[in-house]
Design a protein that fits this description.
It contains 19 helices and 11 strands. By secondary structure, it is mainly alpha-helical. The strands form 5 sheets. A 3-stranded antiparallel β-sheet has the order 1-3-2. The chain has a two-stranded antiparallel ribbon with strand order 4-5. β4 and β5 form a beta hairpin.
């Protein structure tokens, strides 16, 4: 009797080991992406090690917009509805990676999801991709809400999903079985869990296109801090020419709007953690993260189309004398904060002095700093450069013509409006359209324009959307404002 028991127990253990190995081999064994020397490709589609936490099986992801178009934002057009740039021939839009775990390809967001841009100089032109740009049209909250709505929809069934996949892909029998009985139920469950994890968004203002609340998800999910009802809504920053921010013997430069980090690689790693990377996947992802870091250290913005060399009458012509005069004003009034050689460049300017909306600043707390510095139990990430500041960082102005709307929360639609006293700045405008506003600097965003037709209303009366502060230049005579505007457009 005892021998039978031990044989039975041994058999069970063997089955468990074989089953665990088979499960790992089929669903979780990470497979490296094809190697490429194109750093832009690594940035646009490289894995950040979050497929196990965030990855959706490719064929499920592929058919969701066709199955649930009513959950897409207005003016829906597949995944283009979220403002993602999809190049002809690419398997997925810029900002999504495809990596195989086991035998299944997974789709997950990467850094480029938020840090991409597009623009058009004239309405009848196709949009041009801006790599590592400020995410002018991208709406990450709408993407999150789409997936949550899909997970909660009772029509998300294996029968419907498999029928839709069958219209575009002749799936082999073994894969059909894996999708029907394992992957579709698991994806539905994961999306429902995502709905619970992001429930805190319901009592806060919408982010809207080009904006994100980047650290409250990390505070509540990774750092396990209690919901403090703060609002972190802010524009997504461009990641251009960040090699200029390497620390020197005498200076350290701050990153993020509020300067909560001073080290570029720690910023990249903590960003990947916020998007789902774990210490278990870090080892297989570290090289990719370092290559992404190399790309954003070197990648600059496209050159400004505004130039005195353009023929008079061209929308992008600027007067040479006005540009020269505007540069002199910039050097006298702006360079100390915004020029790379300025004493206050990339340092936090006190919110008392700056006077802009402080919600984003208050979102990052001393408790969050301390908890992230010690993240996570059982694994030492070695973070040493998180900090809590009292203001917003004075950033460089390269590519300013592509960075509208302006201020950290994107609350001022154009450069011309930024030179107005706060009481005279627009209180409502439209975000998310990518046609450059050649007259005012920024993007077309006014009422009764194409900006209204294709954009999303931005209301400065909403918490976190205040358009006050940053009074520098608002007291200039009108002629000097026009000269400064001419120069700023050329940056």
């Amino acid at each position: 009797m005892r021998r039978v028991f031990w044989k039975w127990l041994f058999g069970v253990l063997v089955l468990l080991v074989v089953g665990a190995f088979a499960l790992f081999f089929l669903l979780f064994r990470p497979v490296a992406q094809p190697r490429t020397n194109d750093l832009a490709e690594v940035f646009n589609h490289g894995s950040i090690g979050n497929e196990e936490a965030q990855g959706i099986p490719y064929w499920i992801w592929r058919v969701l917009p066709q199955l649930f178009p009513e959950h897409l934002p207005a003016n829906a057009d597949g995944y283009g509805a979220f403002g993602l740039y999809w190049r002809t021939g690419d398997e997925v839009p810029v900002g999504l990676s495809v990596r195989t775990l086991g035998v299944i390809e997974r789709v997950a967001p990467n850094c480029a999801f938020c840090h991409q841009g597009s623009y058009r100089l004239r309405a009848d032109e196709p949009a041009r991709l801006v790599e590592a740009g400020p995410g002018t049209r991208v709406n990450p909250q709408a993407y999150i809400r789409f997936l949550i709505a899909v997970g909660a929809d009772p029509r998300f069934t294996a029968d419907r999903v498999m029928a839709e996949i069958g219209r575009i892909y002749d799936m082999p029998l073994w894969e059909r079985a894996l999708y029907r009985f394992v992957l579709i139920p698991a994806t539905r469950s994961a999306l429902q869990e995502q709905g619970r994890r992001f429930a805190w968004m319901k009592d806060r203002p919408d982010w809207g296109p080009g904006r994100i609340d980047p650290f409250n998800p990390v505070k509540f999910q990774n750092l396990e801090l209690a919901d403090d009802h703060t609002i972190g809504n802010s524009d997504m920053m461009p990641l251009w020419s960040l090699a200029d921010l390497s620390a020197t013997n005498t200076r350290r430069f701050s990153l993020h709007w509020d300067g909560l980090q001073t080290d570029l690689y720690e910023t990249v790693v903590s960003g990947a953690i916020g998007d789902g990377m774990t210490y278990k996947s870090y080892g297989g992802t570290e090289e990719g993260l370092r290559r992404i870091t190399d790309f954003i250290r070197l990648q600059g913005p496209p050159p400004s189309p505004f130039s005195p060399l353009k023929p008079e009458g061209d929308s992008y012509h600027v007067d040479a004398a006005a540009v020269d005069a505007g540069r002199a004003i910039y050097l006298a009034r702006c360079a100390v904060c915004h020029d790379a050689k300025g004493a206050r460049y990339r340092t936090p300017i006190s919110i008392v002095e700056l006077g802009t909306d402080r919600h984003r600043l208050d979102m990052w707390t001393p408790a969050a700093r301390d908890r992230y510095a010690a993240y996570e139990p059982g694994y030492a990430w070695g973070f040493t450069n998180f900090q809590k500041t009292d203001g917003y960082v004075a950033t460089g102005l390269r590519g300013l013509w592509l960075r509208g709307p302006y201020l950290h929360n994107g609350s001022v639609p154009t450069l011309r409006a930024l030179l107005l006293p706060p009481a005279e700045r627009p209180t409502q405008f439209y975000r998310g359209y990518d046609l450059v506003d050649a007259e005012n600097g920024g993007f077309v965003s006014g009422r009764d324009t194409a900006g209204q037709q294709y954009g999303t209303l931005y209301d400065t009366s909403q918490p976190g959307n205040g358009n006050g502060g940053h009074l520098w230049g608002t007291d200039l005579p009108q002629e000097a404002k026009e000269q400064l505007l001419s120069y700023l457009k050329t940056l």
